[in-house]
Design brief:
The strands form 4 sheets. A 5-stranded parallel sheet has the order 2-1-3-4-5, sandwiched between helices. It has a 5-stranded mixed sheet with strand order 8-7-6-10-9, sandwiched between helices. A 5-stranded mixed sheet has the order 12-13-11-16-17, with helices on both faces. The protein is α/β, with parallel strands linked by helices. Helix 2 runs parallel beside helix 3 and helix 3 crosses helix 7. The protein is elongated and about 105 Å long. It starts with 16 loop residues before the first strand and ends with a strand. Helices cover about 45% and strands about 20% of the residues. The protein folds into 3 domains: about 130 residues, Response regulator (Rossmann fold); about 160 residues, Beta-Lactamase (2-Layer Sandwich), CATH 3.30.450; about 150 residues, Alpha-Beta Plaits. The longest helix is centred in the middle third of the chain and has 33 residues. It has 15 helices and 17 strands.
Length: about 500
């Protein structure tokens, strides 16, 4: 019997036809004898190309393939069968002399439905083929589907197209990961990764949205700068899909072809509105957060783009997760866990940086050191949990009374240090007085009432110090003045 012919001694048996692909005539003969004895019809092919032609033409119930063969190996044959719509449903059993873990792993990842080595027992082979055949769809005749007759050159051409598609996917994934993993935060990572996807996908816009402990963040990359209305519509849909309550604050940024710093409305007069009904949304598998990826592909490219986006969704989620968690780690390393202000180390490091900058550019620099008055009484009267609430609430009140460019850190216990760049002693004293009044007017709500507290303040300007002032010298001067304020009756500013 020649290769590719059905067993003349067995009638056609729908659902019992098995294609054996192996370059060894002896191996094919042993397999055919074992399978025919179990009631299967057997078709034989001596290499991957012939196997692909017969699989696409004959529609067997199961394909059994070796890995190493001339012309076309088992792995590209497996990828071709799983990629072609006409054969994607065919169960494939890899039967090989390779028993190493790498061959088994790659077979499974490439789509193999089962894997056996050639030291198998006949009953094991039959049982595996029976199991695969039982779940296979009945074979269809190619003519009934209107499919053209496929020859060896068609097989090689399809494999070449698959290799090109796989190379494109791998290149895009590598570019996305290489650029995105170097980003410093959600928005930078999202812009970098979305722009990388946009280089290969003709989309009107792409967007990423995440709802996490740190809040709701949306980043939108558009080919044409969108209007504020379109940005708002994208954000509202993202918030809805993330399951966030309407009206929640959203940190949204837009990037794309607009010039750096240009707002969406300034460059979007001619841009048509975004058609959000044609927007595709995909969930992002994130750790400890909910995320979505949105894109609107230009209509004529939509069919080709969707599989590529499916492949890139996982790496994109990895980039976003990496950026979020890295930013969170940096935040935890510099932030006081209770008050959410800078911790002692970070405060001192920033003070040293600002002091060096002030010296270099001959700018003024002042600091304000404050200590909550009689804080021990709060703990003794209400307990440490209330004391923690008062510390956190008081720190937030101090932060609100400072400029955006000022720094506030928990210096230790109930002491806080404010660093005021480009502020001289007179202005710093006024700022300290604002802080004093702000804290005096602030109340921390507790069960059954509220707790009020005051603080004493010591102010120092680095211009008061001798040549080559240090951060230690500046803090020491503010500390002495803080104790002067305590001695003067508390709830006051010195000098």
């Amino acid at each position: 019997m020649s290769r590719g012919e059905r067993d003349p001694g067995a009638p056609a048996a729908p659902g019992r036809r098995v294609l054996v692909v192996d370059d060894s005539e002896v191996t094919r003969a042993i397999l055919a004898r074992t399978l025919r004895a179990a009631g299967f019809e057997v078709i034989e092919a001596q290499d991957g190309v012939e196997g692909a032609v017969l699989a696409l033409r004959e529609r067997p119930a199961v394909v059994i393939s070796d890995l190493e063969m001339p012309t076309l190996d088992g792995f590209p044959l497996l990828r071709l069968l799983k990629a072609e719509p006409a054969s994607a449903h065919l169960p494939v059993l890899i039967l090989t002399s390779h028993g190493e873990a790498a061959s088994r792993f790659w077979s499974e990842r490439t789509g193999a439905d089962a894997y056996l080595t050639k030291d198998y027992q006949p009953q094991e082979l039959v049982a595996t083929v029976e199991r695969l055949a039982a779940r296979a769809r009945p074979p269809l005749d190619a003519a009934e589907e209107g499919a053209p007759v496929i020859g060896p050159l068609d097989v090689l051409a399809r494999i070449a197209r698959q290799l090109d598609a796989a190379l494109l996917q791998a290149t895009l994934m590598n570019t996305l990961l290489e650029r995105g993993m170097a980003a410093g935060g959600f928005h930078e990572a999202s812009h970098t990764a979305l722009a990388a996807i946009g280089e290969a996908i003709d989309a009107r816009f792409l967007a990423a949205a995440v709802a996490a402990e740190e809040g709701v963040m949306v980043h939108l990359v558009a080919a044409e700068p969108p209007s504020h209305e379109d940005v708002g519509r994208v954000c509202r849909q993202a918030v809805e899909r993330l399951g966030v309550r309407p009206g929640a604050p959203v940190d949204v940024r837009v990037s794309g072809l607009a010039a750096e710093g240009e707002t969406p409305a300034e460059s979007s007069a001619a841009a048509p509105p975004l058609d959000l009904e044609r927007t595709s949304w995909r969930s992002l598998p994130l750790h400890g957060a909910r995320g979505v990826l949105a894109l609107q592909v230009r209509e004529r490219f939509a069919a080709r783009v969707s599989p590529l986006v499916d492949v890139l969704t996982g790496p994109f989620a990895l980039v976003v997760d990496n950026a979020r968690l890295a930013a969170r780690l940096r935040e935890l390393s510099t932030q006081d866990g209770l008050t959410r202000q800078l911790n002692h180390r970070a405060t001192y490091e920033r003070l040293i940086e600002e002091l060096a900058r002030a010296e270099r550019y001959h700018h003024p620099l002042s600091i304000v050191l404050c200590d909550f008055d009689q804080f021990k009484q709060v703990n003794d009267t209400h307990g440490h949990l209330v004391g923690d609430a008062v510390l956190s609430s008081g720190a937030a009140a101090l932060r609100q009374c400072l400029r955006a460019g000022d720094l506030l850190g928990r210096y230790g216990g109930e002491e806080f240090l404010a660093v005021l760049p480009q502020v001289d002693l007179a202005a710093a004293r006024q700022a300290a007085e604002r802080l004093r009044r702000c804290l005096e007017d602030h109340a921390t709500p507790i069960a059954g009432g509220a707790v009020r507290i005051t603080a004493s303040f010591g102010v120092a300007d680095f211009a008061e110090l001798a040549e080559r002032p240090t951060a230690e010298m500046l803090v020491s001067l503010a500390d002495r003045r803080l104790y002067e304020a305590k001695a003067a009756g508390r709830n006051c500013v010195r000098p």
